Amino acid sequence: MTVSPLAWVITLVVLVAIIVIDLFIVDRKPHDFSAREASRWIAFYVGLAGVFAVIVGVVYGPSYSGQFVAGYLTEYSLSVDNLFVFLVIMTSFAVPAALQHRVLLVGIVIALVLRGILIVIGAEVIHRFQGIFFLFAAFLLLTAWKVWTGGDEEPDPEPNRLVRMISSKVPTTQEYDGTHLVTRISGKRYLTPLAMVMIAIGTTDLLFALDSIPAVFGITSEAFLVFAANAFALMGLRQLYFLIRDLITKLRHLNKGIALILVFIAIKLLLEACHSVLGWNVPLVPVWLSLVVIVGILVGTTLLSLRPSRELER
Fold it and tell me: How many whole angstroms separate alpha carbon 27 and alpha carbon 105?
């Protein structure tokens, strides 16, 4: 797959345009998102991902389109786990409901920039050393075990090191000043909690990217598709936060589903590494099977998680 610089530029311009529209039109008047409004925007972002998949299929072929869709679904499902931590961070910073959408928007822009750097580095490493797939597979299996066994652990609400370092070096205040990132108190400038929580969201996401980016590289080695899958998943993640904010604690089996997806991708990576690096005649996992397995696991774990809730309501 040869992606021209023009294709990269167009993709980046479209993403920036979406962010600008979101920031200056949708979030012009900060407000708490209702489930109906969040659902409409989720449909919009999923639709955009679908349009992108069609364009990729027309320009580069259906195989790459399928790789993008599988990578997008994987990234989206793994990113849902971020919502637990985002919820804890929002609570620990006491972010007003009306400001949470803007916090997520700016925080995810920071996350996307940092993920882009990781993707470029990862693509270069894969290009120079395909044996890295063995390390990716081992890392994903270890992560799957931690996710499977750590589902009942509470996320750490303490700010990350970068936030603590900034707080120790730069004057900060505990009082919000509307949508301002910097406020003036007695003639002196202070960073508001809004600025700090945006940094916390953006940089904390980087820890999740260390798990999810190798997983998407396990589906496609094309940096363009990996970046696009991350971008579309993160953009739609904000609205998903508001849609399932009150239901997120009921998704009791979500960690099990994520762990199973990671194990499946790790096995896929091992087979491909044995084939391409060691020259073994082993079966490879086709794109369509990846799609079927990922969607099946997501649907199954969601239904299992929500079934007890419906039984209790009866």
Answer: 9
Q: What is the pTM of this model?
A: 0.74
Asked if 198 and 106 count as a contact pair (C-beta separation under 8 A), the reply is yes
Which candidate, 178, 228, 191, places its Cα nearest to that of 76?
A: 228
Q: What is the largest CA-CA distance in the chain?
A: 73
For the chain, the domain total comes to 1
**Tens digits of per-residue pLDDT, 1-46?**
788 889 899 988 988 888 777 767 666 666 666 777 778 888 888 8
Dist CA 299 CA 288 (whole Å): 16
Confirm whether 76 is domain-assigned.
yes
Q: What is the DSSP string of 10-35?
A: HHHHHHHHHHHHIIIIITSS--PPPH
β-pairing, 182-185 vs 188-191, is: antiparallel
Q: Are 201 and 107 in contact (CB under 8 A)?
A: yes
In the numeric block, which tokens belong to residue 274? 């044995």
Taking Cα atoms as reference points, which of 242, 230, 204 lies closest to residue 117?
230
Containing structural domain, residue 84: 34-309
Structural domain contains residue 2: no
